[in-house]
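hey so i finaly got around to running the thing on Aminodeoxychorismate lyase from Agromyces archimandritae. pasting the sequence first so u can double check i didnt mess up the copy paste, my clipboard has been acting weird all day
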Amino acid sequence: MSHTVTLLIEPLPADVDDIDPDSTFHAVAPSAPALRVAELSTQRGDGIFETIAVVDGHAQEVGPHLERLRASARITDLPEPNLEQWRRAIHRAVGELPAQGEYSVKIVLSRGIEGGPTPTAWLMGFPSADHRAAREHGIRAVTLDRGYDHGAAERAPWLLLGAKTLSYAVNMAALREAKRRGADDAIFVSSDGYVLEGPTSSVVMRIGDEVATPAATGQILPGTTQRSLFSHLVDAGSTATERDIRAEELARADAVWLVSSVRLAVPVVELDGRPVPFDAAETAAFNAYLLSPRD
Ligand code: PLP
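ok and heres what it spat out for the 3d tokens, dont ask me to read them lol
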């Protein structure tokens, strides 16, 4: 059993259902050359992706991740992906990864080669980094100005703010800035003072009995982990709301988490140099749910 899997995928049009998707997958060794240097994904970050957690052989939230891939394709004018083909590719990758432990499956749809007839697509499965210490003991975060107001997505849809594109250079720069400021991670705030998201995560906070997250109205990525956690909390009778959140509210929250598919719920124990209350039992309950098989 290998600990990594790489598949090159010939993307099928969305409406094709008479071709066996398995015939469109080509397994390659992770170190083998597989992409052309003219790829627009590497040249311009022009493409979209999803990262799906695999926990003990179960791929989490495949449906919501594929729906978001479809939404990202729409926003970026890429051809609509064939979701059944992607579902089968993920299934095949999971079958090749070990049945125990935490793994990641990253699926990528790139605009392809300049002038090329189709997008290019691939999948990588690999062991996830060990996030147990961060889940248990928390991280320090700083708020960083994102440089636009929270209505920017409507005015400037070409910023692609609601799509999960490959262009993460800005997000990585924010993480480096957070480290320069002595923190582990960042929380973006709009120039007019609203909480947005982390560079690779959604922001969740609790004030009193209300768990809240910024509403994803085009200016941030709708988080699959946050949505799954919120529906679980609502089912359990808690108040979990998606709404506008001012930066001042975050500063006086009773708890703050960064949540994402692979890291799961990581408590923020220090924000902008000030301690944030941290409930170990509540965080452990969030992560027990997030580690359970979810579709
Ligand atoms: N926001 C951004 C910018 C992200 O990169 C991510 C995940 O990588 C998220 C939010 C959280 O999304 P998800 O919970 O679907 O992993």
